[in-house]
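User: I'm writing a tutorial on reading structure tokens. Could you give me a worked example: one chain, its sequence, then its tokens, then a sentence or two explaining what the tokens reveal?
Assistant: Sure. Here is the example chain.
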Amino acid sequence: MKLLKVIAAGIAASALALAGCSSGSSESQSPTSADSTAASSETTDVKVGIVQLPIFAPVYVAEAKGYFADEGLNVTLETFKSGSDAIPLASSGQLDAVAAGFSAGLFSAIESGLGVKVVGSMGVSDGSEDSPTDLVVNKALADSGEVTSPKDLAGKDVGVAGGAGGTGAYLTALALESDGASLADVNLVNLGNPDMPAALANGGIDAGLISAPFSHHSISDGNGVSLWVPPKGVSGTGLIYGEQFLETETAQKFFNALVRASADLQGEDRYSDENIKIIADATDQTPEQVRAVPLYTWEPDLAPKLDQLADMERVWMSSGAISYSTPLDSADYVETKFAANAG
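And here are its predicted structure tokens:
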């Protein structure tokens, strides 16, 4: 197998203290015949929490190309290390939306009454060996024949960003289950993506579910071998709305702009010079660095993946990362109307 690149890293911990405001008009006056010009330029503020990764390219493209502005929106992006830092702020109305990875904590929070819903998907694996994410095994273990497939990791230490409740753990579960094993057969080690290449090299872990560019570093440095890549259609990230934002007209307008951006990212168009520069600028990289890593793909309508979300809940319930025992009704945590009405 080949190489990988970019899934976002884990899904960590406590909510950041952040002053924010919920959706509202940037103009306070009511339009009259005397100020119709001012009224026509009135915009609505939208505050979005985002993890700074290329996997969320539709957000960056919509902003850079003026698609939000075309919908009458003034969008402010707030960067977070993980979704679990931002999601509570969406529930309280300090953020309107969050683009981040999914976690066991999201399900647990919704089960306990947190007011948020998943409304869309973000980056989706195309199933190719040249993947933005890989399960990478220590090269010595691969060369010796001790580890030739995911089930051979039984009893070994596997690094996953965010620990047992993170997206990395879910993807590792998919790898193991595809080979007749499960998360219960391995020792999960909560380790950030930047730390995994060194841990693989020094024996701190035997394998790791690693996002690019760090997976690339492990393989190109000769310390790791790609053992598995996510199958086609898998997405560990998406778009989440706070309940206060859900019922506004602005929520659909925001989603419409994202779908317009997704259309610009279909197929090889995602690698256009304009899109690459937008992604590079948004993620503090050079265009050359972005091109060196394969990008994810995006669903044209950015529809949420109901079956996969339910499967994530299943994996985390079975591993103990989720404590409740009865699966949630999908209506409790997913809203599909925005993708259905986008256009």
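What the tokens reveal: The CA atoms of residues 136 and 226 lie 5 Å apart. The two ends are 38 Å apart (CA to CA).
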